[in-house]
Amino acid sequence: DMNRTFPDNVKFRKTADPCLQHTLYNVLVAYGHHNKAVGYCQGMNFIAGYLILITKNEEESFWLLDALIGRILPDYYSPAMLGLKTDQEVLGELVKMKVPAVAELMERHGVMWTLVVSRWFICLFIDILPVETVLRIWDCLFYEGSKIIFRVALTLIKQHQAFILEATNFPDICDKFKEITKGTFVTECHSFMQKIFTDPGSLSMATINRLRETCREKLLSQG
């Protein structure tokens, strides 16, 4: 995974001096020792790599990674990824409440949410949305917690509802979800961040936690 982490970024190339691959390795190994229950899981390399690019500091990146994995996104990067799977199902339930026509389309064509949004959640929108927008999202994520991920996802879906509903089959739906993360709507980060706090409407942690409990139980019963 080291060589696949931001291969187009000059600071992560082996010829760079200093090469941030070494810093990334140190952070991930240290975290593996610090949290043996998680160790290392795919996706963590992008999160840690992004933190290193932002902070330019090995220790700060480590503690921010610990805050994300241990407190803000529990069980996202555990071996079973139960937290991640749960939150993808929670998004599906929220779409039923907020954008029912899209939820009905997904159900009608048998498209599971994990197929279209897993990278949004695993990578926290890295390489999905523009860098400036991702940085603003992460600011809010550290300040307000995991509900920001749902706000961003719901805003993307709600804003492009008509476009998504043009889909007529399974592959078409998947393509639509790739397209909605591009364009001026997401590049104009200031207006985008305003939208995520208005478009989805009310979204309390109480609602999210209630849905998490229901979805987690459902996943566990399915084995």
TrEMBL record:
GO terms of molecular function: GTPase activator activity; small GTPase binding
InterPro entries: Rab-GAP-TBC_dom, Rab-GAP_TBC_sf, Rab_GAP_TBC_domain
Gene3D superfamilies from the UniProt entry: putative rabgap domain of human tbc1 domain family member 14 like domains (1.10.8.270), Ypt/Rab-GAP domain of gyp1p, domain 3 (1.10.472.80)
Pfam assignment, any one: RabGAP-TBC
Top-rank taxon, per record: Eukaryota
Domain Rab-GAP TBC residues, every copy: 1-145
Stretches assigned to coiled coil: none
UniProt keyword annotations, A-Z: GTPase activation
SMART domains for this protein: TBC
Function: May act as a GTPase-activating protein for Rab family protein(s).
Descriptive protein name: Growth hormone-regulated TBC protein 1
Organism: Jacana jacana (Wattled jacana)
Lineage: Eukaryota, Metazoa, Chordata, Craniata, Vertebrata
